Amino acid sequence: MTYTHILASRLARLRAAAFTVITALTSAACADSSAPLATDEGVADQPAMSNIGTGCSSSYTRLVPVSTASQLTNATYYARPGDRIQLASGTYRGHWNLKTSGSAAARITLCGPRSAVLDGGGTSAAPITLAVRASNWTVQGFTIRNAFQGVFLIGAHGVIIKGLEISNMGQEAIHLHTFSTHNVIDSNYIHDTGKAGLRYGEGIYVGNASSKWCTYYNCQPDRTDYNQVTRNIIGPNIGAQMVDVKEGTTGTIISGNTFNGTGGSAYQDAWVNVYGNSSVMSGNRGTTARQHGIKVETLVSGWGKYNVFHSNSWNLTGAPGYGFRIGGGTPASTVDLGCDNTVTNADSGFATVPCSR
């Protein structure tokens, strides 16, 4: 079997796994008929920005309405499987930890309209606004703003973050780490990050850098694997990368997203950094880059390989870099870069390596 056939087989398996996870989680938690997520024929059209906030669309066995920050604290602390914690319109100031897990059959939902706002109290050093330390939650529809960090998934599995607007963050908007697996980050609108430190202002951050492995993981990789980043609108004014996929991660699916690099800082060396293995990027669109569209590197031996890029459309608007920069120790032979990608207005050209098919 040739290496091209091996990569094609790998792509098929990863796509199948991704769509199985998305379909299972979405049918259980977000019975939202506004638009399909994806099919094996490709990625669905991205939602209009006005349609991203989906409010509450999940089933439940117990409705827990809240209208104050203290009620929200109590509702999350005493949550049980099957709950829908429903936010009324208004501003909720504080920081919350989700520690009770739902189940596949009885998820826990925290949801509300876009006019329900979790306010972190400022962009300087402060706790995470919403820390999800449990599994089988759906977090949907509302706004998070004016905070140091937005939503963190910490050892979480089967979580859906859907239809949020997250803005005015001191650092990153959404971070998945500490072995968080099989989560879906879908249809969120993320903008204006890195207010307290541009280099830490990622839109969506998957995993943790190898420099942190010995501090937190007994010198082992943070295997934050098989997560889906779908149909998000990211930008403008993102401090660092729109999506940063760290070494140590496997099987990240990045599909149907829109990247807007307007207002990005010098730390935004690419819309997306891919340092993990076996990621699949398809059907994404990007405009206005500071340097590169996508950057693939091997920062740690054995990582930055077997990544797949197909059917993406980039307009770098005169940026000095490449649409796809494959380098930093990553052999070109370990990357499936499709000729069905389109790149315009990249001063250095399509890619550092030839497209494969």
In short:
With 357 residues, the protein is mostly beta strands. It is built from three helices and 33 strands.
Plain-language structure description:
With 357 residues, the chain is mainly β. The protein has a single domain, classed as Pectate Lyase C-like (3 Solenoid), CATH 2.160.20. 11% of the residues lie in helices and 34% in strands. It is built from 3 helices and 33 strands. It has an 11-stranded parallel sheet with strand order 3-4-7-10-13-16-19-22-25-28-31, with helices on both faces. The two termini are 16 Å apart.
Detail the topology: elements first, then pairings.
Blueprint: H1 3-29, E1 38-39, E2 42-43, E3 62-66, H2 69-77, E4 83-87, E5 90-93, E6 96-98, E7 108-111, E8 116-119, E9 130-132, E10 137-140, E11 143-147, E12 151-154, E13 160-162, E14 165-169, E15 174-177, E16 184-186, E17 189-191, E18 204-206, H3 213-216, E19 228-230, E20 233-234, E21 243-245, E22 253-255, E23 258-260, E24 270-274, E25 280-282, E26 285-287, E27 292-296, E28 307-310, E29 313-319, E30 322-326, E31 335-337, E32 342-346, E33 349-351
Parallel strand pairs: 3-4, 4-7, 5-8, 6-9, 7-10, 8-11, 9-12, 10-13, 11-14, 12-15, 13-16, 14-17, 15-18, 16-19, 17-20, 18-21, 19-22, 20-23, 21-24, 22-25, 23-26, 24-27, 25-28, 26-29, 27-30, 28-31, 29-32, 30-33
Antiparallel strand pairs: 1-2
Name some characteristics of this structure.
357 residues; mainly beta; Pectate Lyase C-like; 10-stranded parallel sheet; 3 helices
